[in-house]
Amino acid sequence: xxxxxxxxxxxxTVSAPMSVGLGVGQNNLVMGLHLSISGKAAKGETFQVIVxxxxxxxxxxxxxxxxxxxxxxxxxxxxxxxxQVNAALATLTDQESGSGTDTLTTVASDSLGDNTPTxxxxxxxxxxxxxxxxxxxxxxxxxxxxxxxxxxxxxxxxARETFTVTLTDASGVFAxxxxxxxxxxxxxxxxxxxxATVDRDLKAxxxxxxxxxxxxxxxxxxxxxAAGPLSIPVAVLVPAxxxxxxxxxxxxxxxxxxxxIREAAFTPHLLLAVGHSAIA
Length: 280
Known about the structure:
By secondary structure, the protein is mainly beta. It has helices spanning 82-89, 195-203, 240-251, 259-265; strands spanning 4-9, 12-17, 20-23, 27-29, 34-37, 47-52, 57-59, 67-69, 75-80, 93-95, 100-110, 119-126, 129-132, 137-140, 145-146, 151-154, 163-169, 173-175, 188-193, 206-208, 213-221, 226-239, 269-272. Helices cover 13% and strands 44% of the residues.
């Protein structure tokens, strides 16, 4: 189905988007507004397009010489030649102060008495994106460990809106199942797609940590809003066998280990935090 709707009246036709997605607080460009005529414009013929909504701040550029009037900021009337009107429509922006819904209404006429029907374009005003993450992550040393609890949310997210999530870790290596993600196998990963795709890929994410560290996560959306950076501490579990080998090497021989160290060697895992030693 086309993303553009049209309304014809006489020789003129006005086009408007089927729907509009805006980011809350953003001065987003509204694509798809256009006025056309089936033949050649008559000498001295002028055209008028009215664009309005309920709550948004509508604005256009008058650089092409169009005349601007109307009950601004929620209603704007453009009057001029076909070229002037279309030049202004190509610059039309809408800024909404709160998330939710609105409607963009477009109607056109000319000086010869032709009028188009009104076209209504539903507007979705997407809220600010946010990052959900646990207070910390725990991974096993030397093992690509699934990361839990990572998600991106947004109130009233718009159709065809996309999101880009970036994750960095100073010493770890990210792995992600989707081949479309960039940076899998490195310490900097980028995930891009709609909200469902991003959340699916975050659930499939794992980290092989080089040591206790911090994941830094950011998200931006295609409507101009962003969240982050959010820092997520990473703790590392060291398997007991590896701890025993390391301790034995430090002491010179396994029999020389003290009793507390030997007891620790039978523990399934030991949690090492930054700035702490496992040997008393």
